[in-house]
Amino acid sequence: MPSIFALHGVTAVNHRILEFDYLRGIAILYILLGHSIYNSNEGFPVLLENLLRGGTGVFVFVSGFFFHRVFYRQFEYRSFMVKKIQNVFVPFLVISAVAIVLQMNEWLFIHGNTWDEALVIEWKILRDGYVLFPHWYIPFIMLTFLLSPWHKAYIEKPLALQLGLLALSSVVAVFLQRGADNGPIQSLFYFTPFYLLGILYSQYQGWFERNKKPLLMLCAVLVLVALYMQTYVFFHVGNYHNAPLRFRGVDWQFIQKMAICLLLLELSRWMVGKPGADHLHFLARISFALFFLHPFLTMVVADGLLFLHNVYAFDIPHNTPWSMGMLVFLFLFLTYGTVGLILLLKRWLGNNSRWVMGW
Fold this sequence. Notes:
mainly alpha, two-stranded parallel sheet, 2 strands, globular
């Protein structure tokens, strides 16, 4: 397809761009940072929270890139879906089953609920399609994988139509916002632009790299404007959640995170060959396992804080120093506590660990 976007510099079908592996590592750390925020709107700096929330979009952007770069040219729908079921959906089911057992024990023995009360609580959780809160992502991404023939067709469309569909889906997302319960259908509409942007970056990588400087400047401006508008003009804390077809204004998080995808990609490119790059690559390799298992560490923290409250009447103070200290502690605990759990499971289960945690 002759155009100023002509594909440039891509050779092997399965060629993996190192900076995108790093970006996947950064994306999972970004998600863990967002899940480490404590005292939301009660001591934690709102501007920083608005920057740290919503890292999932970067994860989706990376998935879109690899769909085009790795799977597209030899795409076979059945084998593609079988692998995604084995590596994503089956671990989701296994971990969800374990989580149900642990949660039932929490309701019964920590919170003192009766069996009937515990079952009602668990049923209300299950109605949303997941057990552990971050796992709302799995039904959504499986739905995205199911629509891969549509994404393949998107790749083969003329550039003008591709850009039109990206623009249209972005307008829908910015007003639709994320679902109140993070349901898969609304999440599909919201995050599809990130996936399409990843596809386009892979497809027209040469153009993106040749125009890197003005694009990065534009992205930096968009991030700053979106942060300012969300924090100081319309004051909204964190992600936007909304009922379907209900107008609640512009989702500034969406605009910010679309721009951050390219900024973090440049950071990933800068990381190549730098100290810590190998460790980031390791985190990228286990990113799905980190995503699957870190909610268990969140449960440990929540139960520990409840114990401190009930036994010692101690609560984390609602001020900025304590909130920032908790951010650092929770981030390190969630990240490296989960890494330790992953390595233990890998040693115990060997190759069968893929069925449990996706790695």
